[in-house]
Amino acid sequence: MPPPAHGTPRVPDWTSLARGRRVRPLEWLAERVLMALAFTALVVICLIFLFVGREAWPIFAGRVDSSLARELQDVIPPEDLDKTPPERLRLYLGLTREQFAAMDRDTLRELMEVRIEAREQIPDDKDALLNTVRWRYLIGPHQWTGYDRPVYIWQPVSAIHKYNLVPLVVGSLKATLVALAFAVPLALAAAIYVSQLANPRAREWLKPGIELLAGIPSVVLGFFALIVLATLMQRLFGYPSRLNALVAGVALGLAVIPVVFSVAEDALTSVPRSYAEAALALGSTRWQAAWQIVLPAALPGVFAAVVLGFGRAIGETMIVLMASGNASILSWNPLDSVRTLTATIAAELAETVVGGHHYRMLFVIGVLLFAVTFLSNLAGEWFIHRLRARLEGQR
Amino acid sequence: MNPAPTARLRGELTTRHREPVSFFCTGLTGLATLLILAMLGLILANIAWHGAGSLSPRFIFGSADRDMFDPAKAAVGPMVFGTAARVILMTLFVIPIGVSTAIYLTEYARGTSWWTRGLRSAVNNLAGVPSIVFGLFGLGFFVSAVGGSLDALIYPGNPKPVWGKPALIWASLTLAVMTLPVVIVATEEALRAIPVGLREASLALGATKWQTVVRVVLPQALPGILTGGILAVSRAAGEVAPILFTGVAYYMASLPRSLTDQFMDLAYHVFVLSTQAPDVDKSRPILYGTVVVLLLLTFALNVVAILIRARVRRRLRQLG
Amino acid sequence: MQMKSTTSWVPRRFLGTTLVVLAAGTCPGAHAATITVKGSDTMVILAQKWAEVYMSQHPDVKIQVTGGGTGTGFAALQNQQTDLCNASRKIRPKEVETCIRAFGRRPTEYRVALDGLSVYVHADNPIEELSMEQLEAIFTGRITNWKELGGPDARIILYSRENNSGTYEFFKDHVLQGKDFAAQAQTMPGTAAVLQAVSRERYGIGYGGAAYGVGAKHLRIRKDAGAPAVEPTEENVINGSYPISRYLYIYVNPALDKGPVAEYLRWIRSDAGQAVVKQVGYYPLPPELRTR
Asked: Touching C: which chains, 3+ CB pairs < 8 A?
């Protein structure tokens, strides 16, 4: 999504011009409706921020317990249903008061039987008592039973749920860095060429041509990477695993190019022509003018382009879901498969029980993604602001 | 933009300075531009080459209830329908809200008040939120929270949820939220392109503010608003991540009949065919065919949007 | 004739249905016999085939099928977002507990087909058979080179399934004895993707339903080092000599197990439904488990 166009003239405040006129009731109503709709938009946007945060909050607040301690407590045999005090029974079965009140005897009995079955399936494992959604397990390494050293692993579907975020964060960064390494030089070069060096007639079709790349849906890029690119690149480079960070990164790069290109091109075009013309008049070549005068002047805009490209790459889902191999390995080798934050949500959200710890962990990932893209957006806006201030100051 | 003086200079410069470094670097950047276009061309050519053969009216509009993975029988009619339905519904939500918000922001709100600024920065940030986060939001908010409470209100005690499950309406609403910034930004841009003089003239002739906005400003801004709508539709048509949990179905024997039905979808079908078909090599023609249909849909919309926008921008330049 | 009817209905209904879709949201309960099916990706083709055949005989019933994985199906069953849940493994006590909490009853379990789990390698791989211990060592990451198994000197590329898949959990429970998969295992969104990857990857190994498997070699499996290597054929799976076989299940909320849903479930387990199982490539239930 290219950022909002900037530099368009702002409509001067003409609100005051219309003041003091007779107000027609119907128009007054229509204007209120307009305001209400705008307000709805704001509310909906705020809801997203609030809602994703709300679902993740219990983990941040340390209120979720994924340990199996409750299952490991003493068993009450189903025959004792009538002998057990109701309050104790309710706590034993982990029910809320309303749930407990709504259940008949058969249901309670059934629940008690299931509790015994569940007890039998719990692994005989010291890790069963760990609350694995605490931050030390989410971020730090831990030596789980059966492993010979402390590891960072994401294995949410397992007898012991292992939710270490490090491999996913590294995976996302790895794919994103590959994408930027591939896309930024190409897109910047193209932006310089199109805005400064190409003749105006070529410019007319080069720009929309490159922007057309943004019109390819990401699922199509993912499909292309999976079916064509992966095979092609493996044949070219002969590395062992077919789907890896490199393939995903290159496909991701294709999605990033139009973002970086259009922001950078906008920035370069917004540098007043007089800059370049002055340089040309002093005898420099067009390239020298572009490289030494226009580019440095537009530098904040170029940073904005890179930052916004980063935000686009780290938030992309379908391409990495299809082309990255989705193995949560912790390594910096771009030829290994990666599992990214976004692909993890896409692959796992549907299987989770609403309100469960796995569900909440995926919302934590959502918050993380949200925070990262929010910051990169903010940084991008700040750079664009700097660019504008700089150009307006010196004009 | 006035190319005349530089064009004249250009002629002199190329003869005067054939400085090798500049020449080389210019070539390099030109090559990068070509490379990007070549990659775009290669992708499209590959898809067109393999996919064109599968295209036929039967493939595009036929029903899928024979065999989804058999190239001789498969068709994407229900997917085309599902995609169209979710996108049309989305438009019904996003256009009124988006356009009203933009009108409010440019024509009514004071640019400096806290809540205008808040609204603007919220919209800008919304534009950068990853699409999968909208999926999270759609499932958690629309499906579980809104749908769940609707069920509790309308059908208390009914074990089978009607609203509280993935459905066409929730997918469309999720997409509408996602594309809100596209519409708002495009509409704002279009509104700002209209000179204040026009508004002042209208007011001077005795029109009220509302009349000015509705009769003078909006008709002028229509192409820009249209572009925004088309861009939103084109973006939404190709998105999979937000609908993954909010409404799409792998297989349905009939078309969705109500807002609470699930639906099949073109973009999701591309995902299904490339990762879950029993024999990917055999079903490849269907896969490529589906991709072509999806691309035709989104590209056609994009090209229209680019053309309209170019016209609007040209006029903006003339006026500015 | 058939062809003609399929082509002509769409354009005419296209507009009409759009309008109906837009208008009908207010009365969603109007069409009664819709059965939603969700769950195992392994079973999605089977479920779709069942749905097609059944609907052609009962035009009044509409069935919608979604995949997503067994875990997804159970989650939807617990969240009451589906009628039937396809599962390629048995339900876990924890899931039963959540179901009871959600709708007060233990979900009813139906065994609906039998499946063998094949281990695939590339067609050019010289390895023909492996024992269960070797499989465990390979997939937990203890053996990482084909050389250790008597094959070529090359790294083993592991292909696994997404963790929402019942196949993943079944393999984990029965072959890996509950241990974690090696982190190096690439996770694929479907059995087909595993197969596709293995058929292109010279040194790859993956697992999945025996019904799939065009393009890659199915290994013979030994129960332990001394036992004979058994091929995943219908006979071997049904008589139980092939060590990695399982039932496929459908779970249903007992409150919904009546009327058309119950009817459909009966049909699935009848001879007619089991004929479809065979057609799709799974193995039918032994006669004593069928309905009449």
From this structure: A, B
Per-residue pLDDT, B118: 79
Contact C120, C160 (CB under 8 A): no
C222 falls within a domain? yes
Burial A355-373 (b: 16+ CB within 10 A, else e): ebbbbbbbbbbbbbbbebb
pLDDT at site C213: 66
C56/C136 same-domain check? no
If you write DSSP's letter for every residue of B148-186 in order, what string do you get?
A: HHHHHHHSTT-SS-SSSS--HHHHHHHHHHHHHHHHHHH
**pLDDT per residue as tens digits for the range B101-112:** 999 888 888 767
**How far apart, in whole angstroms, are the C-alpha atoms of residue A369 and residue A352?**
19
How many C-beta neighbours within 10 Å does residue B42 have?
12
With CA atoms as reference, report the closest residue to C198 among C182, C185, C181: C185
User: Are C184 and A231 within 8 A, CB to CB?
Assistant: no
Whichever domain contains B86, its CATH number is 1.10.3720.10
Q: Is residue C277 assigned to a domain?
A: yes
Residue B4 forms part of a structural domain: no
Q: Which amino acid is at A101?
A: A
Domain containing residue A339: 166-394
DSSP state letter for C46: H
Kindly state the tokens that stand for A84: 């057990």
Tell me the residue range of the domain where C186 lies. Answer: 115-245
Domain with residue C271: its CATH number is: 3.40.190.10
User: If we measure between CA atoms, which residue out of B107, B100, B167 comes closest to residue B138?
Assistant: B167
Residue with tokens 């992966």: A230
User: Which of C211, C218, C217, C214 is closest to C279 using CA atoms?
Assistant: C211
- B251-252 and C62-68: which strand pairing? antiparallel
The owner of tokens 């399934």 is C161
CB contact under 8 A, B278 and C83: no
Q: In whole angstroms, what is the distance from residue B43 CA to residue B38 CA?
A: 9
Looking at the fold, whether C60 and C145 belong to one and the same domain comes out as no
Separation in Å, CA of C10 to nearest CA in chain B: 6
Print the domain residue range for B245.
58-319
Residues C122 and C221 reside in one and the same domain: yes
- pLDDT at B250 (0 to 100): 79
**Same domain, yes or no: C133 and C110:** no
- Measure in Å the smallest separation between the Cα of C228 and chain B Cα atoms: 30
* Number of structural domains found in chain A: 1
B265 touches chain A (CB under 8 A): no
Q: Which residue from A131, A91, A83, A85 is spatially nearest to A111, judged by alpha carbons?
A: A91
List chain A residues with pLDDT less than 50.
Answer: 1-9, 395
pTM: 0.85
In a domain, residue A108? The reply is no
C170, C84 contact by CB (below 8 A): no
Number of domains in chain B: 1
- Distance CA(A175)–CA(A177), nearest Å, equals 6
For A210, name the nearest residue in chain B, comparing CA atoms only.
Answer: B37
- Number of domains chain C contains: 2
Residue type, B309: R
